[in-house]
Amino acid sequence: MNNPNGPYPGRQLFLGLTANGNPSLAYLVTGRSPQSRERRGTSIENGVIMGPIGNEPYDWLRHYTAIKIDNVNGLAVVSNGIQTGAIFETYKLLFHTGAPPAKGYLKKIMDGARAEPDSLHTPRIAGVITNRSGTVNPVYIIGIITHNLPAKTFQFRPEPGTLTGISTYKGDLNNPEPFDVSSNLPKLEFKGETPEELAEFVFDISAASHQGDDIRVCAIGGIRSDDNSTWNLAIRNRHQ
C-alpha cells in the first residue's frame, strides 16, 4: 500500500479507530530539503515535539509541539505547528466546562493562525480526539487552513480499523500544491493494535525519495487505552 496522498504529503495526520475500537492517531513528517529532514520527534511529558538535531538552531516553523495529550480526560491534539497548544487548551476547557466540543472552535483557531509564512504558504493542519464530559463516545475533528482561503473543518465518526486524514500537500514531489479542501479526506485501513505498529505502518507506506534521498523524517502512532483516557505513543524517526 502507498500513501493515499501520493509521494509527497508534506505533513500528514490521521485519526480513527483500531480494529478493536480504540481511538488512534498518526502523524507523519516528510521533507524535500536537507533542512526539513534534519529533525526528529522526541517524547516529552504529555506529548511529542518535533525538534532540531544536534546544535541546529531553533526554527519556529520546523520545530513545534506536534502532539499534546491529557491522560485524565483522553484528549489528544495533533498538528503541524505552534497552533497545537491553543487547540489543546481550548478543547480541554470545553471538556471541563461540559460544553459541546464543536468543530467551530477549531475553525476559529485555524483562521487566526493562517497558512505558514513560507515560500509555499504551507497549510496548517490539525486533528482533535476528545470527549464531552460525562460521555464515552469520542469526537473526531480535522481542520486545515490554506493560503487565502477560510479554514475548513470536518467532524466524522470512523469505522473500526480505519483512519481518516489530511495532509499539507497533495503529493507532487517537484511541484507541491496545497491539499484540495474540496476533495474527500484520504483513508487508511489499519489492522494493528499498538502505537508501534501504527507508526511503522505510516512510515512504511510513505517511502519516497527526492534528489536521491529518503524524504521520510518521522512517523508517530498513538492509541488510547481501554480506560478511555490514557494515551500510548510511539515514534519512528529517520534519525535515531
Describe the structure in your own words.
This protein is of the alpha+beta class. It has one domain: Glutamine Phosphoribosylpyrophosphate, subunit 1, domain 1 (4-Layer Sandwich), CATH 3.60.20. The chain is built from four helices and 15 strands. The protein has a seven-stranded antiparallel beta sheet. A hairpin with an 8-residue loop joins strand 7 and strand 8. Helix 2 runs antiparallel to helix 3. The chain is globular. The mean pLDDT is 96.
Q: Could you give a quick summary of the protein structure above?
A:
The chain has helices at residues 34-37, 83-97, 103-113, 195-205; strands at 11-17, 23-30, 39-44, 47-52, 64-69, 76-79, 124-130, 139-145, 152-156, 162-167, 187-189, 209-210, 213-214, 216-224, 231-237. By secondary structure, the chain is of the alpha+beta class. It has a seven-stranded antiparallel β-sheet. Strands 11-10-1-2-14-15 form a six-stranded antiparallel β-sheet.
User: What name does CATH use for the topology?
Assistant: Glutamine Phosphoribosylpyrophosphate, subunit 1, domain 1
Instruction: Profile the largest sheet.
Output: 7 strands, antiparallel
Head-to-tail CA distance between termini = 25 Å
CATH architecture: 4-Layer Sandwich
Coarse shape: globular
Can you tell me the CATH superfamily?
Inosine monophosphate cyclohydrolase-like
How do the strands line up in the largest sheet?
Answer: 3-4-5-6-7-8-9
- In the CATH scheme, the class would be Alpha Beta
